[in-house]
Design brief:
- The structure holds 2 protein chains of 2 kinds.
- By secondary structure, chain A is mostly helical.
- Chain A has 3 helices and 1 strand, in the order H-E-H-H.
- Chain A has a domain of 66 residues.
- The longest helix of chain A is centred in the C-terminal third of the chain and has 67 residues.
- The termini of chain A are far apart.
- By secondary structure, chain B is mainly α.
- Chain B has 2 domains: 94 residues, Orthogonal Bundle (Rna Polymerase Sigma Factor, Chain: A); 72 residues, Arc Repressor Mutant, subunit A, CATH 1.10.10.10.
- The chains are: A mainly alpha, B mainly alpha.
- Chains A and B meet through helix 1, strand 1, helix 2 and helix 3 of A and helix 1, helix 2, helix 3, strand 1 and helix 4 of B.
Chain lengths: 110, 168
């Protein structure tokens, strides 16, 4: 393409560009526009808020899960401790009882 | 917003509505329609007008907002079941079918080729087509005038080659 051809082609592009807004009319009712804008919720902002909410909800669920898991671990630890302690106490008690029975039997024999 | 700003805001929209629509039309990708972007741009201009300090001309300020809204629209709205409420105060009476078919073909080629450009190149070429000076484009894009001139030389060639191949 020669530079004149290029310039003509570019001018053609500019014409297409300028004509692109002439596909009809845009009528703006100025008396109501500002009032309407005050009450209008921008779809872009709504969409952004929705996505933020999904993100927050997702984060909260994860946070709750982690908190619950931590609580369960704590409870399990306590139960294990208690179980160990309980089992120890029970064994000690049984041993005491057996010892008592043996001593009673010994005395009776004597 | 005071009554004086009300008047100026209305004038801004009325004076700039065609250029805003041209930009919205080039960026609108189905299912988002140019009308959706247009009202979003109007909304953002209305929101920002109170804080506009006059550091740049109103012209460049409007272009900046329009481009930002359109560029952000690309991935912003979830396209599944997309619907948007229309403002009653903005009434579009657009032709369903183009009057001139050859013009429609040229525009379709232009839109398709511009969409292939990177965001920054797209902004630069749109602002050039809007007859802004490199100085004004520099204010909007943040690039130096020299950088814009270099880019524009390359973009022109790419665009011309692309459009020529599409039309032929």
């Amino acid at each position: 393409m020669t530079s004149k051809e290029q310039q003509n082609a570019w001018n053609d592009i500019k014409d297409s560009w300028n004509l692109s807004s002439e596909i009809g009319e845009i009528n703006i009712l100025m008396n109501n526009l500002a009032e309407e804008l005050k009450q209008w919720a921008s779809p872009f902002e709504q969409d952004g808020m929705k996505r933020d909410l999904i993100l927050i909800k997702g984060s909260i669920t994860q946070f709750e899960k982690e908190a619950i898991n931590r609580d369960i671990a704590m409870i399990e630890k306590s139960i294990n401790k208690y179980e160990k302690g309980f089992a120890k106490s029970v064994s000690k008690f049984i041993i005491r009882v057996i010892k008592k029975i043996i001593s009673v039997v010994k005395v009776k024999k004597d | 917003m005071s009554n004086q700003q009300h008047q100026s805001f209305e004038q801004i929209i009325e004076v700039n509505k065609s250029k805003i629509f041209r930009i919205c039309r080039i960026y609108a990708v189905n299912p988002i329609e140019p009308e959706d972007l247009f009202q979003e741009v109007v909304y953002q201009i209305w929101k920002s007008y109170k804080s506009f300090k006059g550091n740049s001309s109103i012209n460049t300020w409007v272009y900046k907002i329009a481009l930002n809204v359109c560029i952000r629209s690309k991935g912003k709205l979830s396209k599944k079941n997309y619907k948007t409420a229309r403002l009653d105060s903005i009434q579009f009476a657009l032709e369903d079918k183009p009057k001139d078919n050859s013009e429609a073909i040229k525009y379709k080629a232009l839109k398709s080729c511009i969409s292939l450009l990177k965001d920054i190149d797209r902004s630069i070429v749109i602002l050039t087509l809007e007859d802004l000076s490199y100085k004004e484009i520099s204010t909007i894009t943040g690039l130096s005038e020299n950088h814009i001139a270099v880019k524009m030389k390359r973009i022109r060639k790419i665009l011309l080659d692309c459009i020529t191949s599409k039309i032929k």
